[in-house]
Amino acid sequence: MNYKLLFLPLLLSSLLLSDAVRATSKTQDLQIAQQPTQPDPTRAAAQQAYKKGFELYKQGTAESLRQAIAKWQIALPLWQKLEDKSNEALTLLGTGRVYDLLGEKQQALSYYNQALPLYRAVGDRSGIAATLHNIGVVYDALGEKQQALSYYNQALPLYRAVGNRFGEATTLHNIGVVYDALGEKQQALSYYNQALLLYRVMGNRSGEAATLTGISGVYSDLGEKQQALSYYNQALLLLRAVGDRSGEARTLNNIGGVYSNLGEKQQALSYYNQALPLHRAVGDRSGEAATLTGIGKVYSDLGEKQQALSYYNQALPLHRAVGDRSGEATTFNNIGGVYYNLGEKQQALSFFNQALPIRRAVGDRSGEANSLFNIASVERDKGNLQAALTQIEASIQIIEELRTKIDDKELRTSYFATVQNRYQFYIDLLMQLHKKETTKSYAAQALHISERSRARVLLELLTEANAKIRKGVDPKLLAQEQSLQEQIDAQAKLRQDLISKSAPATAVQKIEQEIANLLSQYQQLQTQIRTTSPKYAALKYPEPLKLGQIQQQLDANTVLLQYSLGKERSYLWVVTPNSLDSYELPPQTQIEKAANDFRQSIVKVVASPKQQAAAAKQLSQIILAPVANKLANKRLVIVADGALQNIPFAALTEPTTQESYQPLLVNHEIVNLPSASTIAILRQETQKRPKAPKAIAILADPVFSTDDSRVTGKPENNSITPDLDLQRSALSRSASNLNRNGWDRLDGTRQEAQAILKLSSPKDSLAAFDFDANYDWVTNSKLSQYRVIHLATHGFADDVNPELSGIVLSLIDKQGKPQRGYLRLNDIFNLDFPADLIVLSACQTGQGKEVQGEGLVGLTRGLMYAGSPRLVLSLWNVDDQGTKELMSEFYRQMWQEGKSPVAALRAAQLSLWQNPNWRKPLYWAAFTLQGEWR
């Protein structure tokens, strides 16, 4: 575990003592009250002693701080003799501050608690606020987080009452620090962002840097490492500009932690080794301990265990000396990790058990969950499976609680990805118990945990869609959302243009940074829209399904195959309406290699049928052969995991066939689901919904370029030789088909649409071609009247920023002018498409960013959110002419033969497979049906 340092600004500078004490936040100066007109030797001596102490305090070394205390001890009895409670309180506050800096927390508390009644006696609200705040800082450092919050929340209204914005900002920042430590990341971000705004208004760069560091830490903890680095680097520049060496050291430490988590160990060491001498130079023992801990973790990860122990053993007494219980617990945990890897399980357990009560005492819920997981790992290795089960259940319970406290869906998703190893451990443990006691329900429990570990945000999004959570939201927020969407679209288009014109990398990077900033703003706004919705507070999210509930979703002709890929072992559950069987499969690496080989063999035009058959057979033998006797000729509902999400099961070899290659679709309809629980909520959403009155709305053949013949009047030459694979595949509906002049026209989409329209009544159909196939058409509310929505055009998947994934509509209007023409994922979330079926007849529309625990994050979730229970999407760059053939047959099978969408898709794919011109899976296997099969 990486140890993260946050700034804890301590307030001396914000005091106003009866208008006589002035403060400057930049240097944290404190001036004592002016001398009265008549000279007073006692007052002069007190002032002189205080000022000498303050000059020593500003030097900031351990020795000068001790000397400052000595001077202030001279001043204190003199202020008491003068009955000057204001300056007595000031000196007590300063002394407490120094003891805090020296790590002597109880001494600091003693002095703060002497200062507080004095400030109250003179009615100095600024002094009261500063003292309350600093008491909060001490309790925070001691790990007593609720006590810290209590004092901060007393200080905050006082700062606001006296108009002290620096004090207000710093208290907001430190409340964020507490919530961060408690694992309540959304709360932490809220307070950090309030503080950041105030610091920027004041032009306080030190405070701004500290808060950027706090925000960075949240993003790092939630798995958003690149975003964290961006904020840390902004903070580092500010800290160096203001000469804050202590802050610089802490930020270097934290950047080292991010690189360590990213696996870039030498980079991490470089930053840690820059931080360490800076910590020592400014006497920051807490920071020094944290950096030593970080260095120890790097050496541990590099396999240099004795070196790691050496650094941990240097850090541990420093953590104890400054009263840093959280740091002490982290170091105990990390020492335990070293002994665990060395095979010394009992020694490891001893250290994990020392870390656990400290983490509970300081309220570190995330750390507690980690310690419980570590203890569970040791108990499992010792053969104590029931003891391990108790510990991992407690760990998962904390994770679930922390997860629900994150309102931002993207951050909730990224956090959940960081803890997937806990769920994998839990599943594996249950399945090992199942081996020992097959009569108990461990396999069913493991299936339920598999459901709890996947597509949870999608379930919550679908619940919100069903509740119409956006209704009643402040129109100003929706207007801001629209504005941000337009800005994101414009910047993304500019980036695309720069890339197509081979612009300098620096120009592209600048645009990418702007896009990242806009996406971050959009993400925060989405959270605000949701949480301010009148329906949000009362919303109840569904629990993932258990075995009996899953079985209720199935019929006698349907078998569910649910996969979970693990580091040591993988698992497959086969579920029917009245049975559950489970199977142990090889490790994830072996399965994913076979899956990737299979996919690569399919998408390569030059791959021979023999090569493709061999790759299909290899994967089928691993993931289907063990359950061949359970499949019969039934419909297969696939809940895939890892690389299996990217492959077409329909193109795998039938595991019982003796032929060299017979695709699975010969005997089976194939359906894909993100999770078994998804189908239940889709059915709940649509069971009482009236059917749309009209048949199909179809969009095809948009205009992408001013060079298009529909603009210029000059004919284009997009001729295709249908007999040549290489030439035929040259025109696909994908982002890879973007040339220097823009997107190529797709004639096949027009032919496809015209063939489909011939199968439907004109009065029940709506078509948009050419310039009409535009953004306004596809976002028109009239589309809610159609049972099927079919979009045939270019598509693209962005696996870095899935929000930018989408489809390409007409980019040019009838006058030849550019117009908004990209329908992106964020746009789709705002559509109302209560269609029975949506078909995206384009490339990569079923792809997305693979996020552990959530699956492929892309267009699928947006379209389901928009209201469709079933989707037909593609897994790779589809051929223009082949797709035309497939889609024409798909609709014929649905409308003329009366088949369900899943049966019609199977029949259409079989038709192409049986045609020598289209036999290769490249042409028919890309399209899959997601969602409802009934």
UniProtKB/TrEMBL annotation:
<feature type="signal peptide">
    <location>
        <begin position="1"/>
        <end position="23"/>
    </location>
</feature>
<dbReference type="Pfam" id="PF13424">
    <property type="entry name" value="TPR_12"/>
</dbReference>
<dbReference type="Pfam" id="PF12770">
    <property type="entry name" value="CHAT"/>
</dbReference>
<feature type="repeat" description="TPR">
    <location>
        <begin position="249"/>
        <end position="282"/>
    </location>
</feature>
<keyword id="KW-0802">TPR repeat</keyword>
<dbReference type="InterPro" id="IPR011990">
    <property type="entry name" value="TPR-like_helical_dom_sf"/>
</dbReference>
<feature type="repeat" description="TPR">
    <location>
        <begin position="169"/>
        <end position="202"/>
    </location>
</feature>
<dbReference type="InterPro" id="IPR019734">
    <property type="entry name" value="TPR_rpt"/>
</dbReference>
<keyword id="KW-0732">Signal</keyword>
<protein>
    <submittedName>
        <fullName>TPR domain protein</fullName>
    </submittedName>
</protein>
<feature type="repeat" description="TPR">
    <location>
        <begin position="329"/>
        <end position="362"/>
    </location>
</feature>
<feature type="domain" description="CHAT">
    <location>
        <begin position="615"/>
        <end position="932"/>
    </location>
</feature>
<feature type="repeat" description="TPR">
    <location>
        <begin position="129"/>
        <end position="162"/>
    </location>
</feature>
<feature type="repeat" description="TPR">
    <location>
        <begin position="289"/>
        <end position="322"/>
    </location>
</feature>
<dbReference type="InterPro" id="IPR024983">
    <property type="entry name" value="CHAT_dom"/>
</dbReference>
